[in-house]
Amino acid sequence: MTTANMRRMTPYMFLAPAAAFMIVGLLYPVAYMIYASFLDWNPSQLIGEADWINLRNYVSLLQDASFRESTVVTLKFSSIVVTTEMVVGVGLALLLDRQIRGISVLRTIFILPMMIAPIVVGLMWRYMYHPSVGIFNRTLKDWGLEPIPWLSDSGWALTSIIIADIWQWTPFIFILALAALQSLPRSALEAARIDGASGWQQIIHIKLPLMMPVLVVTLLLRLIDSFKVLEVILVMTNGGPGLSTEILSLRIARTASEFRELGVAAAMSNYLLLLLLALTIIMFVYNKIVEAREAAVRQAAEEA
Amino acid sequence: MPRIRFDSVKKSYGSVEVLPPFDLQFEDGEFTVLVGPSGCGKSTILRMLAGLEDLTEGEIWFDNTPISKLDPKDRDIAMVFQDYALYPHMNIAKNMSFALRLQKTPKATIDEKVNRVAQMLGIDHLLARKPGELSGGQRQRVAMGRALVRDASTFLFDEPLSNLDAKLRGKMRNELAEMRNTLDKNMVYVTHDQVEAMTLGDRIVVVADGLIQQEGTAEQLFTSPANKFVAGFIGSPTMNFLTAELTEAGGVLKAKGDGFLLDLPTTLKKGAESASGRQVTIGIRPSAFKVASDAPAAGSRIELFVKLSEYLGAQSVLVTMCGAEEVLIEMTSSVRVEEGSTVAFSVLPEDIMVFDESTEVRL
């Protein structure tokens, strides 16, 4: 092989191991799942024995009230959770972006929830929500108030899991927002102070717009993540009472294990995958736009 | 325009005192330049005036109003930053009108003001662009424009030209000098560049190590510097300093050093008597040397070994050696001096400054 050829091949050789892992670990399962979604497949059968039923799984899902209910629960859960987390996380970052004594300890405490395993988070909140010995109801009782059926009432259960998720994932947005804040150009903020901007006006006119690229990516990451949440809800409510907290990922798990409908579960996963794919593409396109704009800016600066 | 007065202002960061208590006064409508080497505290003075840094002690007065507790926005100031500090997400028109929009100025007035200033600075064709799409010089103008639109009583400049290349810096300096004459504003300008200071300032304040070394016009600073630092800082090429011993012979005070015996000005004699027989530092500007054979026989002769001749066009700078010390000489290029030869120069007594060896104060 000539040196020129060698040189051209080098990057591909370095990429090869990662590519191999991608093919085995990602593309193969996805392809398998797509194939399975066209089958009427029972776990007791080998995949080769299952009947090919074309799009019947997809069509029947669209008419399935439970699936639609799950989708609605998921969308409700994700939108409420992500909106609240963004507001609280960014708000906390704006509050804590200052030099006061013990701030680094405070910041560390704030990001602790994120580091706890989801199963543990689920168990923890289940105990706290316990109707008689949980801390919430005990406290309510001490204050002379009626206990709340946190997880056993279909009206309350979704709220309860939303609270738990906000508790766990607000820190994620907080640390990213804080990092974005701290990398803002100091002098632009000083210029804004001299131009007469109050604290609020600095936030609205300078800080938030400048943080926007980071916030958009954070929002999408969090949105995608919230569609896939499973363990915490599985441990806390297992989707109940009724279907009130049965988000899509939980519905998929139950369809596969309880209802033994592997083909339907695969089709459901593909619907979720399409949704996430759409979100990812939005994120990707946004990044491309930002990059293109920056490149144009750089070019303009170089020409000048 | 208010008169600005610093009254025993002091600044410390924790236990580190960066600016010991000082007084400073800016006259109405004056262009004052704070000049000094990096880290001397000149920017801190400006930032305290802007309200971006707190005072540790003392007070700043605008006429009879104490302002040290006021927010920057209540001080009626506009500032141009070294890195321009434009708002990257707003276009140029929005950048320039930000302060006015915050004040809820009517849109027609804003447009009128922005257009007028933009035209004055020659950036009216850029109003729709974002700062990132502009060159350094254009951004600099926008930063200036943003300050001008404010119509504040006092303008602060924090090394506004130091991010520009040499040619552009010269151009902007001239434009600033013109602007200084047309605008009736207080202007306080911080720079480390003595050329900027000399060309722009009505009054120059030289700062070093947190201390105000001297205040005065460019000419005062150049012709009668208060100490060795000011003498060395103002003027280019920098003043030559030589160690010497004062001797008196025949009623004339002379400076005797390694390879020279120079007459000192008679005006000096009175103040320098105490230093007689003691070590001093003498300072001679590079332009004060004349080739002895060309000059009339006035002044003292000094023989110097010419190490290097730097041709700069009309002027040449000779790097010469006086004993072990380097002496720079500036002269017209029409006088040919051979590198590697020893040449006799003459220096007039009045061109020699004498500084105390330990206090560095001029005698």
> Which fold does the CATH topology of the largest domain in chain B refer to?
Rossmann fold
Helical proportion of chain A, percent range: over 70%
* CA-CA gap between termini of chain A: 44 Å
Q: What overall form of chain B do the CA principal axes indicate? A: elongated
| Rg of chain B, alpha carbons | 25 Å
Largest interface: A-B, 24 and 32 residues
CATH architecture of chain A: Orthogonal Bundle
- Count of helix runs of chain A: 12
Whole-number total of structural domains of chain A: 1
How would you briefly describe this protein structure?
The complex is a heterodimer of chains A (304) and B (363). With 304 residues, chain A is mainly alpha-helical.
How would you portray this structure in words?
The complex is a heterodimer of chains A (304) and B (363). Chain A has helices spanning 3-36, 56-63, 65-96, 103-111, 118-128, 135-142, 154-182, 186-194, 199-227, 231-236, 248-257, 262-303; strands at residues 39-40, 51-52. Chain A has 304 residues and is mainly alpha-helical. In chain A, helix 7 packs across helix 9 and helix 9 packs antiparallel against helix 12. The mean pLDDT of chain A is 86. Chain B is of the alpha+beta class and 363 residues long. Chain B has helices spanning 42-50, 92-102, 107-121, 136-150, 166-182, 194-200, 218-223, 228-233, 266-272; strands at residues 4-13, 16-26, 31-35, 57-62, 65-66, 77-80, 154-158, 186-191, 203-208, 211-216, 240-249, 252-257, 260-263, 279-284, 290-291, 300-311, 315-322, 325-332, 342-347, 352-356. A six-stranded mixed β-sheet of chain B has the order 6-7-8-3-9-10, with helices on both faces. In chain B, strand 17 and strand 18 form a beta hairpin. Chain B starts with a strand and ends in a 7-residue tail after the last strand. Chains A and B meet through helix 8, helix 9 and helix 12 of A and strand 6, helix 2 and helix 4 of B.
